[in-house]
Amino acid sequence: MAVIELTMENFEKEVLRSDVPVLVDFWAIWCGPCRMLSPVVDEVSEGAEGFKVGKVNVDEQPELAERFGISSIPCLIVFKGGSEAKRSVGVIPKAAVLDLVKNV
């Protein structure tokens, strides 16, 4: 499944009202660690079964970053049932990303 580009306009529908868990990557183009984690998140999305994957560019969507208290990036948040279930800050390996989303 392709990564969903999340914005203020589609966040409610794609994440908060989703019937499956959603892994959301908060990132920015200038962030070196974000660029390291991005291909891992893309790879996880390709094999996504039972969950969705989305990305929020914090420079383009500062309201979403503020709403969820993003102070350091990259930040992965797993949403389930419209609420935050898990959070991880910093670069983590693919296995850890999968653990985040599969154990919610």
Descriptive notes:
There is one protein chain. The relative contact order is 0.24. The protein has a single domain (4-102), classed as Glutaredoxin, CATH 3.40.30.10. With 104 residues, the chain is of the alpha/beta class. The protein has 4 helices and 5 strands. The protein has a 5-stranded mixed beta sheet. The two termini are 19 Å apart. The model has no long low-confidence stretch (mean pLDDT 96).
Q: What is the secondary structure topology, with strand pairs?
A:
Layout: E1 4-5, H1 11-16, E2 22-27, H2 32-46, E3 52-57, H3 62-67, E4 75-80, E5 83-89, H4 94-102
Parallel strand pairs: 1-3, 2-3
Antiparallel strand pairs: 2-4, 4-5
What fraction strand? 25-35%
Provide a count of the helices.
4
Secondary-structure-based class equals: alpha/beta
Give the helices and strands as they follow along the chain: EHEHEHEEH
Could you tell me the CATH topology label. Answer: Glutaredoxin
Q: Strand order, biggest sheet? A: 1-3-2-4-5
Number of strands: 5
Q: Could you state the CATH homologous superfamily?
A: Glutaredoxin
CATH arch. level architecture: 3-Layer(aba) Sandwich
This entry's quaternary arrangement is: single chain
Distance between the termini: 19 Å
Output mean pLDDT: 96
Largest sheet: 5 strands, mixed
Total number of domains = 1
Q: Label the overall shape.
A: globular
The level of helicity is 25-40%
CA gyration radius, whole angstroms: 12 Å
Uncertain residue segments = none
> What would CATH call the class?
Alpha Beta
